[in-house]
Amino acid sequence: MKNFNKNNKTEQVEVMALFSYEMTPCQPLTFRRRGQTETEVTELLRTHIHFAGQATLHIFDILVGREQMRLEFNSSDLSWHLTR
Q: C-alpha dihedral over 74, 20, 31, 39, to 10 degrees?
């Protein structure tokens, strides 16, 4: 399984997420890179929050197939970024 910290490539993506009020208030389901087809999130491994100035980063460690990646949601500009 690849570790997302080795490559450290970040790109902005579009994410389809499920929002609820349960133990996991947000769960990314799929994401789309610019000019590519939709990619399904296989498994949500871990979530945590990082406070960065005025913004809150909601961080999701995910599996896509057997590859580990990270999705980050920035609460100030409502953008999603993928780190591989």
A: 150
